[in-house]
TrEMBL record:
Highest taxon of source: Bacteria
Domain THIF-type NAD/FAD binding fold: residue ranges: 18-257
InterPro entries for the chain: ThiF/MoeB/HesA, ThiF_NAD_FAD-bd, Ubiquitin-activating_enz
One record GO biological process: protein modification by small protein conjugation
Protein name in the entry: Molybdopterin biosynthesis protein MoeB
One cellular-component annotation, GO: cytoplasm
A molecular function GO annotation: ubiquitin-like modifier activating enzyme activity
Length: 392
């Protein structure tokens, strides 16, 4: 009897994937993907990215692993309890596939990640459970013209939505109820990080793997964009886990949506947030745009806090980064009032403060404007400190 031997010496880890006609493994190896949130959905996203050989994976999460995570997190073991999610997840990704680089950032996505980081990504994947963080990711991605894919699960149900600038965005999909929930929380008091994260949603490993699977599959199609595959851009996949019905919804782009700002003219500057002052940036803007140039930050910054008892204190930090300690008066215990700014005109008495010292994250992009003309300056010298592990 003749024996048929398969001696194909070209077989490698990716050979079965490469049987897919449109597959480009080299493209995937050269791709950079951000995963925001290393919880139930994030674990499934990262697992898939590692299996597929996505070359550069950035994992953002500021929380530590608790025992309750172990029922929905393939990457974590009992011995990981107490470790940072982002660190443990990055380690496991490389263990699954040594071809990938994965780096963790223990950071708050709303306040700590500079726009330059988003600009380096090919696609951003969201595995989050709150509207405020989704709204922030959405605005960051639009500003630097990057697609992002949101995943959401609750008990057995879930959905995956794909947002590609300049199409419909996450904010375009928000209902009056979504806004009411956000505004209600904002009006109570200034939100601290603890309050933003307090929502706990019941989730299962089964629904997270279904939704994360759809997200990563959509990412693959976006990355292979020269293959003209159909995608869910501007659409949402809705999955009902009780009946296993699913359908696709199409979103409408709202012309009055506040999140469609795309930065056209970005200049990479040899600057770091740690050593460049507000004055330095304003001077550059005046040089480029003329004397009427002003700076416009994409976030509100608190200068001082004052209390009705007469006590006041310097803050100089981004509103969303304030802690309970900043908000409460240490003399009388009342909630303090804040003076904030987001534009700089040149007559402020704190122009010599470094950007980092007013709460601007490393590798951020700072906008300047004169009339309707904009220039955006990237703090490019921070790249290595933030992303060195991925790009060196
Ligand atoms: Zn929109
Ligand atoms: Zn007071």
């Amino acid at each position: 009897m003749e024996e048929i031997l398969n001696l194909d010496i070209d077989e490698n880890r990716y050979s079965r994937l490469e049987l897919i006609p449109w597959w480009n493994q080299e493209l995937l190896h050269n791709s950079t993907i951000m995963v925001v949130g290393a919880g139930a959905i994030g674990n499934e996203l990262i697992k898939n990215l590692a299996l597929l050989g996505i070359g550069k994976i950035l994992i953002i999460d500021m929380d530590k692993i608790e025992q309750t995570n172990l029922t929905r997190s393939i990457l974590y073991r009992m011995s990981d309890v107490g470790k940072y999610k982002a660190e443990a997840a990055a380690e496991k990704a490389v263990e699954i596939n040594p071809d990938v680089r994965a780096i963790p950032l223990k950071a708050n996505i709303v306040t700590d990640i500079g726009l330059g980081v988003f600009r380096k990504m090919d696609v951003v994947l969201g595995g989050l459970d709150n509207r405020e963080a989704r709204l922030s990711i959405n605005q960051f991605c639009y500003k630097v013209n990057k697609p992002w894919i949101d995943g959401a699960i609750e008990v057995l149900n879930g959905f995956a939505r794909v947002f590609v600038p300049p199409g419909p965005c996450y904010e375009c999909t928000m209902t009056e109820n979504d806004w009411n929930l956000i505004n209600k929380r904002k009006s109570c008091a200034l939100l601290t990080h603890e309050q933003i994260l307090e929502g706990k949603t019941p989730t299962t490993p089964t629904s997270s793997s279904i939704i994360a699977g759809i997200q990563v599959q959509e990412m693959l199609k976006l990355l292979h964009n020269d293959r003209k595959l159909p995608t869910l851009a501007g659409k949402g996949y809705v999955f009902n886990g009780l009946t296993h019905d699913s359908f696709v919804v199409e979103y409408q782009r709202k012309d009055d949506c506040m999140s469609h700002d795309i930065y056209e003219d970005i200049k990479e500057m040899p600057w770091s947030a740690r050593d460049i002052s507000i004055r330095d940036v304003l001077n550059q803007a005046k040089k480029d745009l003329g004397d009427s140039a002003i700076l416009e930050f994409d976030r509100d910054i608190v200068t001082i806090a004052t209390c009705s008892c007469g006590h006041s204190k310097n803050i100089f930090n981004v509103v969303n980064k304030l802690s309970n300690k900043d908000i409460v008066c240490e003399k009388c215990g009342k909630t303090m009032r804040f003076e904030t700014f987001h534009s700089i005109y040149g007559d402020e008495n704190f122009l010599d403060k470094k950007l980092f010292d007013i709460g601007i994250p490393l590798f951020h992009i700072i906008s300047s404007r004169s009339g309707l003309k904009y220039i955006h300056y990237e703090l490019s010298n921070d790249k290595n400190e933030v992303l060195g592990g991925l790009f060196e």
